[in-house]
Design a protein that fits this description.
The protein has about 110 residues and is an all-beta fold. It is about 0% helix and about 40% strand. It has no helices and 13 strands.
């Protein structure tokens, strides 16, 4: 399911976590306005992106991931829909830019746009 990252100013985004622990951070982050894909876990407290890659749904009382409508099924693309993807979440301090969609594939840690 897709979610939009919405963090308060002046924060540039939210860091990925290696576990469902706020202190267990990856050096990469999802930029404010970016779209991330994942599954809600732990009673709605976390978004599981893949394996051991998580984002908190909120920080304190501030909700930082806004649910978006599910994308159309494959082959039912809407006009103006984006198929941009970026691999990330292991080393390097890269981010997913605003307007991009995050997907984790394999062990490739380099950002990639298609």
């Amino acid at each position: 399911r897709p979610f939009r990252v919405q963090v308060p100013k002046p924060y540039p985004g939210v860091q990925y976590r290696k576990s469902k622990n706020l202190e267990d951070r990856y050096p990469r982050y999802a930029a404010n306005g970016a779209t991330v894909l994942g599954q809600i876990v732990d009673n709605g407290e976390w978004l599981k992106i893949r394996g051991n890659v998580f984002l908190p749904m909120r920080i304190g009382a501030v909700r930082i991931l806004e649910p978006l409508p599910n994308p159309p099924a494959k082959g039912e693309a809407e006009s103006g829909a984006s198929d941009s993807f970026c691999n990330c979440c292991s080393g390097g301090g890269h981010s997913v830019a605003s307007g991009e969609t995050l997907s984790i594939a394999g062990n490739d840690a380099q950002p990639r746009r298609t």
